[in-house]
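This part of the workshop introduces the protein records we will be handling. Backbone structure tokens are a discrete shorthand for how the chain folds in space. Once this layout is familiar, the rest of the handout is easier to follow. The record below serves as our worked example for the rest of this section.
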Amino acid sequence: MSLPTSSVTSGRLLFRVDGSTITGLGHLVRCQALAQALQPALAATFIIREPAPTIAQQLTAVGITVQTVPADVPPGLSEAEWLANQVSATDILVLDGYHFGPAYQRRLAATGAALVCLDDLITAPTWADVVLNQAGGVAPVAYSQVPLARLCPGPAYALLRPAFWQPAPALPDDAPRRLFLNMGGADPGNQTLALLPQLRRQFSAYQVAVVTGAAYPHLAALQAATAADAQVILRNNLSATDLAALLRTCQVFVCPPSGVAYECCAAGGAVLLHPTADNQRALFEFLTRQELALPLAAGLALSEAELPALAARQRPRQRALFDGRAGERLQSIFGELAASQQYILRRATAADAALYFGWANDPAVRQYAIHPEPIAWETHVAWFRRRLQDADSYLYILSTAGGEPVGQVRVEFDGPDSPGLIDYSVAAAHRGRGLGAVLLRRALQRLRHDRPRLAGGAVLGQVQAGNVASARVFEGLRFVRQAAVTLRGEAYEVFRLDFPLDFALDF
């Protein structure tokens, strides 16, 4: 499954993500899943601090380029400055990590690159164009402080590697009993070895397939502890294909509520969760609340004879949620984003007067304008000159890569404390392609940099009643519908977008 070839662009797909024996590999694994879902149309480059050789080899083996953050670049804003010099305005940059705060995001967003933030703590990545949180039960209101971002919440966007996309066939009743145990790619606290004896005692009829990751530092101790137990199978650093094949031979799964839990749910069976980190709490609550999984403590209270019934209850729910189409949805989101990044946004200049004059007098534009009368050239030139000189007016033009103008956005403020009033239009030759949302999102993200005091403020869109297309554009960008107003005898719908206070300078 892949993006259509028409989505291939000159921009790049970049990931800033880390993983190690200390921090774990969860972020790397889910970014790898996303990168593989988008191949071959978008080739990924992972930008990593001090990647272990085994990690780099694992990524390059699946077609991902690895770039290292130089050792002499300190974390924080200095790193953001370094990374900004690696990024171009046509790129998509994925950030996955808890140390990429508002100032870091703001610096990268200023490059014009599209910013995608993978989030699991609901930390409100305020400069994101797309927020992807694969945990279930996350309401849009949780990201009310992320203006303009497209939200992709829940298992519908599960970051499963391609080997896990297709539902696993049910095992026959006479299949050998097998329990899967994995405590993450690194498991620095060695929960694997701590849990294994208890699982062997409680479920002695089950063979235990223990899988450890490339960054697991306790392999020698685990091997020594299990050498004499024929019912324990050890596997280390499996490929996604081999791991998926192994999971499909198991009926019971013991794992943390992280990405591996989704892979176990995709395989289907009795999933028992053992949290190992604070950032797993939301996913733990979702999976247990939806009866897709059970806390390990509750599972250990069951007898072996009760495990098949538990698996039978959980499996239908798991298959309903993990429908194998998450990759398609991700491809659609990133295909649209990559296409939108090929347009160029700039501030208008005096040389654009004639262009704006033609747009302003377009009959379709005048039909929905507050003042629908045709505009004279002399009137337009005087108005245009004033707008360019006005510090409270912002005029933007979106063009194709070849320089053909696509549309304009104008935002005017009546003083520092008033909301900005939006006017936008798409050129006739480019209508009907969904470019209104692209135009407005790109312009308003740029406005946040051009007018820093916009933080904590708002912008308004006024749409003549009946102009359904424009209303959908504002609603799609998460503007909130306000009370309608009447202007010059015509009814107008009003849409408002509030911007959060800018804490980007606070590290």
